[in-house]
Design brief:
Structural class: alpha+beta
């Protein structure tokens, strides 16, 4: 006989104490009027749902979430939700990179001591209903807060918000176009006897097979061949309100590129967080595996990139300030200052665009369309900064080609805006545009993760952008990751010196 537990009479009065800090949103005034209005509109939708997933982007750009019943979510919406700091202290392989038993975690965050909770406060403006779950489920992005009402110093979403606020103070909107490459493979159903991982040891990567042979760029037949999987993806993406523009088959086997209409920077970062999550989840439900790992360790796969298109828009004058209205140059004076800032800080900020060991495998080939030098050029896909457009072109903008597809969107976008604004404010101008984007004389980008960490640690702009606690957190997490890779290399029996390693495939292919 099964006994169903029911609430004793009167216990519902205690629901407001069940999570977070009672009345947190109101007491600390953390929502805008627009957010309050959006929260009010949610009620009718919540009545049709069973669950709501409340998540946030961790320092690695991965969504960490809790799934709440709708009744619990109603309380958490204005109280906030208690959350463990685990996502702030584990590196990509779930090894402890930040010592949370040291005072302040050793990075100056007192609330981190002893792994104490912080608060997640849902942002009502990001609420969506997932169109593919068995039970009707909402999805919402939350902001991280300390209990005194201040943004958590390890919040990457807050980094981007501070930068867009800085641009807004100048009357400018940060406009971003996403261009994202990723791999679609077919799950083979093979089991792994030792697939379970541990702290600092990832389990076996998914066993997959290519969906096509690749290396016929934009071949319509290959695109059509993946549409049985891509079509439900596209429908879900559009239903979630993301402005998908194109679907293209790239060079590698099953390598796809999705591009999106221009969005404001904050919306673009939120969209990237949701996009990667939805694609991976829905592909798995369709018997396939999606990976945003830059270069999977599979035979003859080609590297994937995340090319970030960006410009600034003058709100009062309703115009793109990068566009040239007179003269013959490819960019306006403001645009040239922005490019100069991107170039000056490119090496220092590389970690925020290329945060994994694997991501640096995109660089270094003589005829690669991935950058390895700090140069710019109009319409040159080998350059770090490519300028698209020119005199009379209202859509003139710049494209940074450094990023890997699994980068943290808030840190990647925030770092771009910080560098560009610095170039504008200091009146910088770039050197002559490059003809050969891989010329030996040009300054190099960092060659590996360890070098990028060192550059980030020394850069004044990075400390100002991130704040010291987040800077120190990233340094510890990434040095932990790099050290584990170095230790594995020291004992590995390898035959191909430049091939993607088993360590990388285990570390990134399944998670990213």
């Amino acid at each position: 006989m099964t006994t169903v537990w029911t609430h004793p009479a009167g216990t519902r009065r205690y629901a407001r104490f069940s999570t977070g800090s009672v009345g947190f949103v109101e007491r600390h005034d953390v929502w805008s009027a627009e957010q309050h209005a959006a929260a009010e509109r949610l009620e009718d939708t919540l009545a049709t749902l069973e669950f709501v997933r409340v998540g946030f982007g961790d320092p690695h750009g991965l969504v960490r979430s809790k799934t709440l019943t709708t009744d619990a979510f109603r309380t958490a919406l204005r109280n906030g939700l208690d959350m463990s700091p685990g996502p702030f202290v584990f590196d990509t392989g779930h090894a402890v990179g930040v010592d949370f038993f040291r005072p302040g975690g050793g990075i100056g965050v007192p609330e981190l001591t002893g792994a104490g909770d912080f608060l997640l406060v849902p942002d009502p403006l990001t609420f969506r209903v997932l169109p593919y779950t068995e039970a009707a489920t909402g999805w919402i992005i939350a902001d991280e807060y300390l209990r005194d009402g201040t943004p958590h110093p390890l919040s990457s979403r807050h980094v981007l918000r501070r930068m867009t606020d800085r641009a807004a103070a100048r009357g400018l909107d940060f406009v971003v176009g996403l261009e994202v490459e990723w791999y679609l493979t077919r799950l083979t159903g093979q089991s792994h006897a030792n697939m379970v991982g541990g702290f600092g040891i990832q389990g076996e990567p998914p066993a997959v097979a290519p969906v096509d042979s690749g290396y016929q760029f934009n071949l319509d037949t290959f695109t059509d061949g993946v549409m049985p999987v891509v079509t439900p993806l596209v429908r879900a993406i559009r239903e979630l309100g993301l402005p998908l523009r194109t679907v293209e088959h790239e060079s590698g086997p099953g390598q796809l590129e999705f591009t999106f209409d221009p969005m404001d920077g904050s919306a673009a970062a939120d969209a990237m967080l949701l996009l990667r999550t939805v694609i991976k989840q829905l592909c798995a439900r369709l018997g396939h595996h999606a990976s945003f790992m830059a270069l999977p360790g599979l035979p003859n796969f080609d590297p994937s990139g995340w090319h970030l298109h960006q410009s600034l828009f003058d709100v009062a004058e309703d115009r793109n300030v990068f566009a040239v209205t007179d003269g013959a140059g490819p960019l306006s004076e403001i645009g040239l200052g922005y490019v100069a800032g991107l170039l000056e800080h490119a090496a220092d900020l590389a970690l925020l665009a290329v945060p994994t060991v694997n991501g640096y495998r995109r660089f270094g080939e003589r005829f690669s369309l991935s950058p390895d030098r700090v140069v710019w050029s109009p319409e040159n896909r080998g350059a770090l900064i490519r300028v698209l457009g020119g005199p009379g072109e209202e859509a003139t903008h710049v494209e940074n080609r450094i990023g890997e597809p699994c980068a943290n969107p808030y840190l990647y976008l925030g770092s771009q805006l910080a560098a560009g604004l610095d170039g504008i404010e200091r009146g910088l101008r770039p050197d002559t545009a490059a003809i050969d984007p891989h010329a030996d004389a040009a300054a190099r980008l960092p060659a590996d993760l360890a070098e990028s960490v060192d550059r980030l640690e020394r850069a004044t702009l990075c400390r100002d952008l991130l704040g010291d606690p987040l800077l120190q957190c990233l340094i510890r997490l990434k040095r932990s990751e790099a050290a584990r890779f170095r230790d594995w290399l020291a004992t590995a029996d390898r035959t191909e010196a430049n091939a993607v390693t088993e360590w990388e495939q285990r570390e990134y292919f399944g998670v990213y």
